[in-house]
Amino acid sequence: MGAKLGGGGGGKKFDLGQNSDINVTPFVDVMLVLLIIFMVSIPAATVSIKLDLPPAIPPPPGTKVKEPILVNIQQGGGIFIGEQKTSLANLTSDLAVVLTKEDPVTPPTEQRVYIRADRTVKYGDFMSVMNDLQENGFYQVALINEDL
Prior knowledge:
By secondary structure, the chain is of the alpha/beta class. Helices cover 31% and strands 13% of the residues.
């Protein structure tokens, strides 16, 4: 707290007057405490997740870019690989056939698979497709939320 000790010449012996200066010390103390709290809590909030991102190098001009293989999940439980209808039980085998036909050199489990689901698909249906792909070795899965 601050007080004005100089007399104002008003005639009263103990008249301190009004102090209109802001005391900044408590404000700075609170800001430093908040800064320390944020500096300590931010590194704990960022969890390192290993991501397999594609390289950011564009293909040379004139190179034909192959169309990605899309696995579409519809609301009623319908699963499509491109335009071909399949079921959850046959998903990985049908997907391996389509991926082998697309690129016979690379093993199907090492190729990237894109999944697109309707907005109304239940989370459990979506996760059953994801789990089935991962259980059968398809780890390079990308999620699509817009049209390509």
